Amino acid sequence: MQAEDLTEVIRQHPFLADLSKVHMEVLVGCASNVHFAEGSYAIREGEIANKFYLIRTGLVALESVVNARRRIRIQTVGPGEVLGWSWLLRPYRWHFNGLAVAEVRAIALDGECLRNKCENDHDFGYEMLSRFSRVIERRLEATRMQLLDLYTTTPKVKK
Amino acid sequence: MTHDALHPAVELADPLLVHPVTIKKMTWETDDTFTLDINLGEVAQDYTFRPGQFNMLYVFGLGEAAISISSDAAEPGTIAHTIHRVGTVTTGLAQVKRGEMIGLRGPYGSSWPIDAARGKDVCIVAGGIGLAPLRPVVYALFRERKAYERIILLYGARSPMDLLFRVELEEWSKEHNVEVLVTVDRGDSSWKGHIGVVTTLFSYLKIDARATVAYVCGPETMMKYTIDELERRGLHEDQVYLSMERNMKCAVGFCGHCQYGPEFICKDGPVFKLPRIRPLLEKKEL
Question: With left for phi above 0 and alpha for psi between -120 and 50, is residue A139 left, alpha or beta?
Fold first, then answer.
């Protein structure tokens, strides 16, 4: 895909829709189109986190590995959302598995490439961190609500 | 009480009179939630309700419980209640058999102001058993489908096993200009849908804030987060309606069991326009 086409695809994604033209030019050099078949892993817990993904279609389930036989699905990330922020922070390793539960089309952004660009252009770095902070804040809020286990009720009588 | 869109003038002959009705059918929706179809018998002719209202169901010898009506308000003769088995009376209701008699009085309370959504988009947000009092809204919207624009239903439950009305959710999602998004807080490997709280579903939507009316029902914390999401998307508080739940006894505002600040949930609610109830939602003491 040509850089102009990729720019257009990225611009349609809510996470970067209003990114300035200058910053878009900085970013697009680190971007590529990717595809994950249903049942394949986009990311794996413990492996090096050198990318993040702008999900275009499909659904990724984030799993936490409890032991060799047990994985807990914590949340799903779908169209218009961002998968992964471990590329931002040392030690740059994934904390979850990301399983494609439906065929996924996404834009991958190279984390190392972006980190270098953030270091070299602090305005761009601030823009990226601001956007990821919003994503992280929303995920924390959702996790807090999930932990409250709102729909459970303790029966007042024995079944 | 003043009469408005939520409280149309309706006179109950004797609001405390219990009518004998019979169980027509019982359907288990989940492990602990069931729907009772009730044959209204001799009161059928005079009985009408509006979406969002509730009845007091009486299990003889055990007591009464306030239960929302979950059936179509336009279907005469039979009404349905979807009930979470959690206390003595609801456990008693879970044990009644087809043809057996229970007591019913009602309907009580305010209703969803469906006319407020005419010509507009409707965003229904339900959590857990909160889908039950909203189901009559969906029926009413479909009954006059052309009077409303886009219908969005966001529904969250604890797990896939706790989802109510699965067949209907599937059917509704196939309708034109209807979006049904379902999520669960906990999903296993067999679940291919969304996992996360119901508010995360807003990420997948673009809402026309100026032309949308929202109806919300679920646990209070879920409703507070939902209000935040709706307002982030530009909805004004006048466009949002909530259904509240409290322990109701008399259902007519006499006993005070369901008092919530200056409001009686049974009589002034359960459906409220957000500005009226918001100051109370923000009070931790209530």
Answer: alpha
